[in-house]
Amino acid sequence: MFDIVIIGAGTAGLSAAIYASRAGKSALVLEGKAYGGQIINTPDIENYPGIAHISGFDFATGLYNQAKALGAVVKMQQALRITKADGRFLVETRRETHEAKAVILATGAKNRPLGLEKEEALIGRGISYCATCDGMFYRGKTVAVNGGGNTAVEDAMFLTGYCEKVYLIHRRDAFRADEKEVERLREKENVEFVLDSVVEALEETDGRLSGIRVKNVKSGESSELPVGGLFIAIGQVPDNGAFQDLVDLDEKGYIIAGEDLKTKTEGVFTAGDCRTKEVRQLTTAASDGAVAALAASKYIDALT
Amino acid sequence: MATNPVTTAEFENEVLKSEVPVLLDFWASWCGPCRMLAPTIEEIAEEAEGFKVMSVNADEEPALVQRFGIQGIPTLIVIKDGEEYNRSIGVIPKDDILALLD
User: Fold this and answer.
1) Burial state string for A109-132 with b = 16 or more CB within 10 A and e = fewer than 16
2) Boundaries of domain holding B19
3) Distance between alpha carbon B93 and the CA centroid of its chain, in Å?
């Protein structure tokens, strides 16, 4: 039996593990895929206070090592179901069931697909959600990036270093991304901004992406772009369906919680990108981890 | 450190002519998700029975990258009797990796 089982080993989950361990609580972190969460795809972090520059991989590895060194247990198991009985929580995975006094849901969010026909079949065959992973395989080719946030702009910037030409397709004419980054991208010669536009169809030749059809939402006109790669960066979607008996979800699927990170079930807390909040950043994920862990510790102390 | 790296030159003997199925991990040092997957691959290699695990450095082996049409990493490919048997792209849980061999 653990004091706290934390679901998700991203920035929020591992921060919670650090705070829980330092509060003298035994913590188990369950992760279905790989530790680190979304940040591992970011080559350069330059907005974490006190750290001028670090790679996402190094940041995540640092968090992981810090949590483990403090005594937290990290297991590569996906939490499938959580039930509450007699004030205890049972967390089921495919391999074993873990018992805990409190639970922190830090499930994060995953890449949002465009929802187009053939999109899933073409992943790794022209469709990518990770420019820093896959960019080099498009060396010398013409590619497109879809999105208007920091990830899309960073992806486009990264790809200009490998690709002959990069189209940045965004459904509006203003960017959510940092103005400084957008300006830096504008200065690149091999970038073309395709604004007020959405990707409406994927063209396939011999099992690989060969082009996309783009529609201008203002003029209603469609045009074909012959690209060998499409990098989709249109945001994230949460993945909390398995836990909807324990927590309330908003219409988008995020866990509803205020700044105290309590959910509708006593003893279940939440942290990071998986919950309703305005700002989803590394710092706010770490902050949530701390608040949730301390709230969970206080809850456990009150049990006895 | 990558698990049992295999080069283009060794590929025929080590992989295509292997008597047991081979789980191939295409990776690169600059790919965060690949490095995150590495400990899982290492664990599978240590526990492997009736198959073997080898890794291909996508930077150093462009011929293998081209041969398999790799456009994203990490990519896991299972080779059985010299033929591609299964493929998965991206970071997936250990159990799902093992299921690629079934």
Assistant:
1) bebeebebebbeebbbbbbbbbbb
2) 8-85
3) 15
Domain-located, residue B90: no
* Count of Cβ atoms closer than 10 Å to residue A137 Cβ: 24
pLDDT of residue A18: 98
- Residue A151 touches chain B, beta carbons under 8 Å: no
CATH number for the domain that contains residue B54: 3.40.30.10
The answer to whether the Cβ–Cβ distance between B69 and A208 falls below 8 Å is yes
* % of chain A residues with pLDDT over 90: 83
Please say if the pLDDT value at position B1 is more than 60. Answer: no
Question: Does A130 qualify as catalytic in the annotation?
Answer: yes
- Both tokens of A129, joined, read 């959600």
Angstroms from B45 CA to nearest CA on chain A: 16
Q: Say if B65 falls within a structural domain.
A: yes
**pLDDT digits 0-9 by tens, A147-204:** 999 989 999 999 999 999 999 999 999 999 999 999 999 999 999 999 999 999 999 9
Residue of B nearest to A231 (CA): B72
State the nearest Cα–Cα gap between B67 and chain A, in angstroms. Answer: 13
Instruction: Please give the model's pTM, rounded to 2 decimal places.
Output: 0.80
Mean pLDDT on A25-54: 90
A253-296 per-position pLDDT tens digit:
999 998 899 999 999 999 999 999 988 999 999 999 999 999 99
Contact by Cβ (8 Å): A149, A155: no
Q: Is A86 a catalytic residue?
A: no
Q: From edge to edge, which strands make up the β-sheet containing A229-232?
A: A127-128, A229-232, A142-146, A165-169, A191-194
Answer whether residue B45 is part of any domain: yes
- Contact call for B90 and A124, based on CB within 8 A: yes
Q: Confirm whether B44 is domain-assigned.
A: yes
Q: Report the run of H or E that residue A14 belongs to, with start and end.
A: helix A11-22
Q: Determine the distance in angstroms separating the CA of B15 from the nearest CA of chain A, rounded to an integer.
A: 22
Q: Do B91 and A33 touch (CB under 8 A)?
A: yes
Contact B91 A36 (CB under 8 A): no
Annotated catalytic residue B34: yes
d(CA A93, CA A143): 40
Mutate to test the interface with B, among A35, A137, A155, A159 (most CBs of B within 10 A): A137
Number of domains forming the structure of chain B = 1
B66 lies within 8 A of chain A by CB: no
Q: Which of A133, A173, A248, A250 is catalytic?
A: A133
List of domains in chain A: 2-111+236-303 (3.50.50.60), 127-232 (3.50.50.60)
